[in-house]
Design brief:
The complex is a heterodimer of chains A (393) and B (161). Chain A has 393 residues and is an alpha/beta fold. Among the domains of chain A are: 8-114, no CATH class; 183-340, no CATH class. Helix content of chain A is 40%, strand content 11%. Chain A has eleven helices and eight strands. A two-stranded parallel sheet of chain A has the order 1-2. In chain A, strands 3-6 form a two-stranded parallel ribbon. Chain A has a two-stranded antiparallel ribbon with strand order 4-5. In chain A, a hairpin with a 5-residue loop joins strand 7 and strand 8 (383-391). In chain A, helix 4 crosses helix 6 and helix 5 packs across helix 6 (103-114). The longest helix of chain A is centred in the middle third of the chain and has 50 residues, at 141-190. Chain B has 161 residues and is mainly alpha-helical. Chain B folds into two domains: 1-78, Rna Polymerase Sigma Factor, Chain: A (Orthogonal Bundle); 91-161, Winged helix-like DNA-binding domain superfamily/Winged helix DNA-binding domain (Arc Repressor Mutant, subunit A, Orthogonal Bundle). In chain B, 75% of the residues lie in helices and 0% in strands. The N and C termini of chain B lie far apart (53 Å). Mean pLDDT of chain B is 84; it is low at 82-91. The chains are: A alpha/beta (393), B mainly alpha (161).
Chain lengths: 393, 161
């Protein structure tokens, strides 16, 4: 039947419902092309097919609406593949042409296009600065421990050298003082005060000739001989001594102290005829041989204490001066001038000490420990002991 | 990877990773935590990571951390999410974007992840597979099903409109 203005509406409805055969559908499309106003009405009606799910379209082999290579079962997959760019160029071209040709397919394609997400640029991570790293690397624990151990060793070495350096500094500073005292002592001797004269011995052999008792020459590591203890003066040996300028009017026993010719050590300040025992902090200054016990008296260090304790000599509650006097069997106060270098309890910190203390404070900060320097003073105000106290280990 | 390259990764990818996580779990604070954890993990292994692989490392680590977080909170639920239909009476949407977001939220976490990695970052199927622990075929199936599901959802709303 020919399509005309009286029956075209039926054909349009059948077309939309998919009931038209191939020939009638072609005739309808030709009629609509000849009648643009009717074609517009047809398109309005045709677009209302949005309300009809795509699945209701029938793509059978007899329908003009059947796209090539696409059917109801695979059109979704084909369209998704097109969106995902999984088709070859030829397949893509074919499918795009069919999409243009068939509105239903086009609608489905547009819906699938909407499923492709677009990033929302407003969603950002606001605190990026917290993630930024400075150019430091993770330091292995072993490296940290090694650094702490090296710092600790450096602190110990620093303290050792600080103690030695400080003592030497004191010694160097005190030389002028000692010299002044020597001069004063000389003057005293010349004024013939009640001070025994200390005698010299030329050689060790001569000293040993006096019965070998308490010969106190000790040569240690090439150092100068030390002061010998008192040797009783008797008629057999008095001619070997210089004349004692003392008068014996005071009935005091004269106890000349033979001395080696040369100074004890670089720190010793033994001069001719002067018993001046310089006691400093540095190293051995005096050797006493008492009851066959050789006792070193390094000033104010633990070795001396140990030896003295071994010899059952109580030292701790006496100053070195008094101890020396006792050892030399000198009772009168003015018989021997033993000069202890007094040190104030608040001595000034030298540069080396301050460096050592700074290193120590850095170590404490790094390792979260609490190392302190502790100085122990004796009754004369001298430093007896310098030790490192560890707390919070 | 140098410190400079790491900082470049932060500037370039922090937003992308955050967006990826946030769109998945819809919790801004948790997303921030996951992003920070991810970059911390990356920093710890900074010497072992090649700069060219940094982005995929970030997304892989972020994805795994996110899955762990989701599984950990599996038995928890926000009141609003569960009773959303009862709380709102008007399901009309002002624009297509809201419809799409709603369609996207109806997907499971795996589908959401693969679709975002595909659309936001442009990863291939095998790259997505490396990040999510799936093979290429599985990724393809997940993407196809996700698109089909979203298309049906969007189409049903548009029919009403």
């Amino acid at each position: 039947m020919e399509i005309n203005i009286n029956n075209y509406e039926v054909y349009i409805i059948d077309f939309i419902d998919g009931k038209l055969n191939e020939i009638d559908a072609a005739n309808l499309l030709n009629f609509l092309d000849r009648n643009p106003d009717l074609k517009e009405e047809f398109e309005i009606l045709n677009n209302s097919s949005k309300f009809i799910p795509v699945e209701h379209f029938s793509f059978d082999s007899t329908s003009l609406l059947q796209p090539k290579n696409i059917n109801l079962n695979n059109y979704s997959e084909k369209l998704i593949a097109l969106i995902e760019n999984d088709l070859s160029q030829s397949e893509k071209d074919v499918l795009l042409s069919e999409i243009k040709r068939y509105p239903e397919l086009k609608n489905a394609y547009e819906l699938f296009l909407k499923t492709k997400l677009i990033p929302d640029s407003k969603i950002i991570f606001k605190n990026k600065e917290s993630l930024i790293k400075t150019p430091f690397r993770i330091i292995p624990l072993f490296t940290k421990l090694s650094a702490i151990a090296a710092l600790f060793i450096a602190v110990i070495i620093m303290f050792y050298f600080v103690n030695n350096f400080n003592s030497k500094n004191l010694l160097a500073n005190n030389e002028s003082i000692v010299k002044a005292k020597q001069d004063s002592i000389s003057k005293v001797l010349k004024s013939k005060n009640n001070i025994p004269i200390l005698l010299q011995r030329e050689t060790e052999k001569e000293m040993l000739a006096f019965g070998g008792v308490n010969a106190a020459l000790v040569k240690k590591n090439g150092k100068k001989p030390m002061v010998s203890p008192a040797i009783p003066l008797n008629k057999n040996n008095k001619n070997l001594f210089k004349e004692n300028p003392l008068n014996n009017n005071n009935n005091q026993s004269v106890t000349p102290i033979p001395l080696p010719k040369k100074v004890i050590s670089e720190n010793g300040l033994i001069n001719n005829n002067i018993a001046q025992i310089e006691l400093t902090k540095v190293e051995e200054k005096l050797v006493l041989k008492e009851n066959n016990i050789v006792t070193y008296l390094p000033n104010n260090n633990e070795i001396a204490f140990q030896n003295i304790e071994t010899a059952n000599i109580e030292y701790k509650d006496r100053s070195l001066t008094n101890y020396v006097k006792q050892q030399l069997q000198i009772t009168a106060q003015s018989e021997v001038i033993a000069v202890n270098k007094p040190t104030n309890s608040t001595e000034n910190i030298t540069l080396a000490e301050s460096i050592g203390l700074n290193v120590l404070s850095i170590y404490n900060m790094v390792s979260n420990h609490d190392l302190k320097v502790k100085k122990t003073y004796n009754n004369d105000g001298e430093i007896e002991k310098v030790s490192l106290v560890v707390t919070g280990w | 990877m140098t410190v400079t390259e790491y900082n470049t990764c932060v500037k370039n990818y922090a937003d992308s990773v955050f967006r990826f996580i946030y769109k998945n779990i819809k919790d801004e604070e948790k997303a921030k935590d996951i992003v920070q954890d991810t970059f911390v993990k990356m920093w710890v292994k900074v010497d072992d990571i090649i700069a060219e692989k940094a982005k995929s490392y970030l997304f892989t680590a972020a994805y795994n951390t996110m899955i762990d977080a989701i599984r950990k909170d599996k038995y928890k639920a926000n009141y609003e999410d569960h009773y959303d239909d009862y709380l709102t009476t008007n399901n009309s949407f002002n624009d297509l974007k809201e419809i799409i977001n709603l369609a996207f939220s109806k997907l499971n976490e795996t589908q959401r992840s693969v679709v975002m990695l595909r659309d936001y970052e442009g990863y291939s199927y095998d790259e997505i597979g490396e990040i999510t622990g799936l093979n290429e075929s599985q990724v393809k199936v997940y993407i196809y099903r996700a698109r089909l599901s979203m298309k049906k959802f969007i189409g049903s709303y548009e029919n009403v409109v």
